[in-house]
């Protein structure tokens, strides 16, 4: 067995994500029999001592039939109305289903804003930790009814990858209606299953497509991006069919396993790189790009050529190269109003009370 599969089989804490296409059918809504089978697999794993956080899609799909809506709506307001109805049905079905195993569920609804704001992030971390310590199974979804276009995750694969880091998971299991990653969209005919992904070269050149069910959102594109985010931060990932949940959560001999990168980023650096929204942008000259990216140095005023946006000391900002490409993110130590007078100055020219790094190396995360 590969290292990733061994790690997933031994994981003490796992985030399991299940997609709409595996739980709901257009027209019929929530498929309780399929949900029960998934819950049985999770309960078996919990019985062996593992802790599971379940990220479940399906609210919009489950809300269509009760509202007499045929297909998945395109406009945000109707999606939100469907999610409002469907989330209640989903939560109820999980409470009933886990109840068959004497397990209690707790509902956690998150927006991407909760990942951006550090206080929200910490608070969510505490809630998960208490729920798990109390023996409950947290059931997570995006808080669809309040999420506006700007603050939406939009796809739960990304939410699951961020949640895996937030709860300190040892593994992420993505369950869908497809049983593995293939070298092309399986709907297009003959394709080969990719059992192990150990690096970028394993996925170079494969063709990934969007959702086939009309219920899911991101298709394989968002699953690959989520797998890369989690694996890149030290969490092994298994992609498998929800119908194979028992085996995916058992000996892990199915699906596609993504090997974890060796070093797990600290929660803070992960948050900076992946989750934080930015308040503005600093434009860097070539020398500064080399210093902060190549030599992991702090960013000094001398290497800044421009400042965009309004921000305060302590906010997260983008760092862009001379071509305008964002190459890093960091916590800025000055208000945007202070910086124009300082940019381009050498340290000895900066007034003594302002003589500090603009972004300290410890607060700076390269994005490549
Ligand atoms: N290279 C690929 N390998 C596997 N599946 C793919 C690939 N490209 C596209 N897909 C499609 O992605 C779909 C899964 O995405 P989606 O419907 O969004 O699932 P979910 O609702 O579980 O998030 C599959 O049904 C499959 O048709
Ligand atoms: N929050 C939405 C799910 C959005 C989503 O990412 O769906 P999917 O691609 O099926 O995982 C819902 O519950 O319907």
UniProtKB/TrEMBL annotation:
ATP binds at residues 17, 176-177, 217-223. GO terms for biological process: L-proline biosynthetic process. It comes from the Bacteria. Coiled coil: none annotated. Its EC number is 2.7.2.11. This is Glutamate 5-kinase. It is an enzyme of class 2 (transferase). Gene3D superfamilies: Acetylglutamate kinase-like, PUA domain. Residues 280-359 form the PUA domain. Pathway: Amino-acid biosynthesis; L-proline biosynthesis; L-glutamate 5-semialdehyde from L-glutamate: step 1/2. GO terms for cellular component: cytosol. Its main location: cytoplasm. It is found in: Cytoplasm. It comes from Amycolatopsis antarctica.
